[in-house]
From TrEMBL:
Identification of the protein by name: TetR/AcrR family transcriptional regulator
DNA-binding region listed in the record: 37-56
Transmembrane stretches, start-end: none
InterPro entries cross-referenced by the UniProt entry: Homeodomain-like_sf (IPR009057), HTH-type_TetR-like_transc_reg (IPR050109), HTH_TetR (IPR001647), Tet_transcr_reg_TetR-rel_C_sf (IPR036271), TetR_SbtR-like_C (IPR049445)
Source species, domain of life: Bacteria
A Gene Ontology molecular function term of the record: transcription cis-regulatory region binding
PROSITE patterns: HTH_TETR_2 (PS50977)
């Protein structure tokens, strides 16, 4: 099997597509009321349960990977936004993406055991902190972000988004993130 995963090789294209479909279906379904059922995930993405279990032997494995995938996408968004936007605008756009991440984080962490989510949270803090620092450093360098802004401060503030239910996140999330952006602006930027 030349295209299969063996000793770190590449995945077959259809296996990778199945994996992505499973993750997307689980991401969508974890938000639904009640416990996430693996058979519902398999049905939602049109694959057999055996295929799902080959990728994710347990429900917790699947949910952990949904969260890891969400973190990877969030982190990867920072340099893409910086390449396309001015630093403060990139930070604001990234915060819009953080709101979606907060929903997934809340739903996944509610569905898995405390020991697992604590481990996931600890592992995601570094990459998310690096993405925040990349955005802040670009803003400090351009003069649009205050020089004393630290990634840890931003992470503490945005972490509260995952504690909000959907209605409150929809109602307050954009305003809270706008307040945060305004607080991160350099004093020079506020005066212009």
């Amino acid at each position: 099997m030349s295209g299969s995963v063996r000793g770190g090789g590449t995945r077959r294209a259809d296996a990778q597509r199945n994996r992505e479909r499973i993750l997307q279906a689980a991401r969508d379904l974890v938000h639904e009321p009640g416990e996430l059922k693996l058979n519902a995930v398999a049905k939602a993405c049109g694959i057999g349960q055996g295929t799902l279990y080959r990728h994710f032997p347990t429900r917790e494995d699947l949910l952990a990977e949904v969260y890891r995938h969400e973190v990877e996408e969030l982190v990867a968004e920072a340099p893409r936004l910086l390449a396309a936007l001015r630093p403060l605008d990139a930070l604001a756009a990234w915060f819009d993406r953080v709101a979606a991440y907060a929903r997934v984080k809340r739903d996944v962490f509610a569905a898995i055991e405390a020991a697992t989510w604590q481990d996931l949270a600890a592992h995601s803090l570094g990459p998310i902190g690096e993405a925040v620092e990349l955005l802040l450093a670009a803003g400090r360098s351009s003069g649009s972000v205050r020089p004393d802004a630290e990634a840890r401060d931003v992470i503490v503030l945005i972490s509260w988004l995952s504690r909000l239910d959907d209605a409150e996140l929809d109602a307050r999330g954009p305003r809270l993130l706008s307040i945060l952006i305004n607080g991160l602006r350099s004093p020079i930027q506020r005066d212009t």
